[in-house]
Specification:
Blueprint lengths: L2 E2 L2 E2 L15 E5 L2 E2 L3 H7 L4 E7 L5 E7 L8 E2 L38 H7 L10 H10 L4 E4 L5 H8 L8 H9 L4 E7 L6 H12 L5 E8 L17 H22 L4 E3 L1 H7 L21 H14 L8 E8 H12 L8 E8 L16 H7 L10 E4 L16 H8 L3 E4 L2 H8 L3
Length: 434
């Protein structure tokens, strides 16, 4: 294994070496370099011996002295210094399989890459890992490890994930837990598949691995209106969501008593479907599962109200228009109503947008598209001089909506500038025109 070199960073230790683009970084201090994780781990030292293979096949050892943890400065053609690892599963609940056409290309790529998990917090199924990969994770003390478990029953896991190796790959989970790794687990729960007694068994097996398993998110399956030729699945309703929450409660109580943390958390969506009050912000510990929608609502409310409490208020007349998904509509409306005591002349209109792009069963704000917002919120509906959107509707790679419309194109079509809010305090600032 080796990493292809495309250049060096100007002024870096590597820039002082005669390393030509097209050469390969074979090893550092005798350790093979496969990707960005090896590179970052082994180049942190002060004294380095690099084995470089030239394009003609000749090899040279170069010595580097630098500050500890100083960036060596070798550049590669890809962020990972390797290709992304694609998912090998055919999960019955895969959201990507339910995507409609017309979205940006990156949306349709299924990654199942431990490197991306470590760097960006995504979850992996373990079916892409070899024993060598697990050796590296343990040696480098990579933490946390985010794992999509879904069920600990090997046969059921194979069925749900459409991969005959999915059950056997659970051995990596137990080995990582035994190594002392910090593990976050995710369970996408599907009605009549891995709920009920199956969920109880999974939670029993996972909580037996605590404290190595530090958090477990239980998330209801998301079903779009584009499930042609896919396994028939049922959405959760109030009663079935309540049954899941009731299964989880005794595990939370046990973990709280034993570890001082509830460990197991239903997602916010599960509570909303169940029509139950969400837990207070203080019940979520360190908020380890925000990416899975666990505690986001309570945190957002706490941020908004804490910021509001610090305000002195005024009588300035202002208007604000806030866009949100249908799931959050009542919640956001309730929050904005709270500002009236301190800002009586601040008029906020909340626009709840139905998700026609994915289908009406998808109600979270983060999956709203520009197409649906533009179709349901017209310029005539807006009294403010800008429109406030959740930051989650715009993705990392270039300020684009899921349907490949740019932020700039959206602003042109609606005729207003966009302001995004990333947390509760930011929403209050946006409403107040800051």
């Amino acid at each position: 294994m080796a990493v292809k070199i495309t250049g060096t960073l100007e002024g870096s230790p590597a820039s002082k070496l005669n390393i030509l683009p097209g050469s390969m970084l074979v090893s550092v201090n005798g350790e093979e370099i496969e990707d960005v994780l090896d590179y970052g781990f082994y180049t942190a030292a002060e004294e380095l011996e690099l084995l470089i293979r030239r394009e003609d096949g000749s090899e040279e050892r170069l010595h580097v002295h630098k500050r500890e943890y100083e960036e060596l400065g070798i550049e590669s053609g890809t962020f990972l210094m390797d290709r992304e690892h694609a998912c090998r599963n055919r999960c019955i609940f895969c959201f990507i399989d339910q995507n409609p056409p017309g979205m940006r290309d990156s949306i349709y790529f299924k990654d199942d890459d431990m490197r991306l998990s470590f760097l960006f917090g995504s979850y992996v199924t373990l079916t892409n890992l070899t024993d060598h990969d697990v050796d590296r994770i343990i040696k480098m003390k990579i933490s946390p490890v985010n794992i999509s478990v879904h069920t600990t029953e090997p046969e059921l896991r194979c069925m749900m994930m459409g991969n005959r190796f999915a059950g056997d790959s659970l051995r990596h989970l137990y080995r990582l837990a035994g190594s002392g790794a910090d593990i976050n687990c995710q369970i996408v729960v599907c009605r009549n598949w891995n709920d009920g007694e199956h969920l109880k068994r999974t939670l029993t097996d996972l909580t037996d691995l605590c404290p190595a398993v530090g958090s477990i998110a239980v998330v209801p399956v998301g079903l779009t209106g584009h499930r042609e030729k896919l396994t028939k699945l049922e959405s959760f309703d109030r009663e079935s969501a309540r049954e899941v929450i009731e299964i989880i409660k005794p595990f939370q109580e046990m973990c709280l008593a034993k570890y001082g943390d509830r460990i197991v958390y239903p997602s916010d969506e599960m509570y909303i479907i169940a029509e139950q009050k969400l837990p207070d912000a203080g019940e979520y510990g360190e908020y380890k599962q925000l990416e899975n929608g666990v505690g986001m609502v309570s945190m957002f409310e706490d941020e908004f109200l804490s910021a509001l409490e610090l305000e002195e208020g005024d009588s300035v007349e202002r208007y604000a228009d806030v866009v949100t998904g249908l799931m959050s509509y009542s919640f956001i409306s309730g929050l904005t109503d709270r500002i009236k005591d301190k800002f009586p002349r601040t008029h906020v209109r909340v626009h709840g947008v139905r998700n026609d792009f994915f289908g009406p069963t998808i109600t979270v704000s983060g999956l709203l598209t520009a197409t649906d917002i533009l179709a349901q919120v017209s310029r005539d509906d807006i009294r403010a001089d800008r429109i406030i959107l959740p930051e989650s509707v715009l993705r990392r790679d270039g300020d684009r909506f899921l349907d490949d419309i740019t932020k700039e194109e959206f602003e042109q079509r609606i005729g207003l500038p966009v302001r995004t809010d990333e947390d509760g305090a930011d929403l209050l600032d946006a409403i107040l025109g800051r």
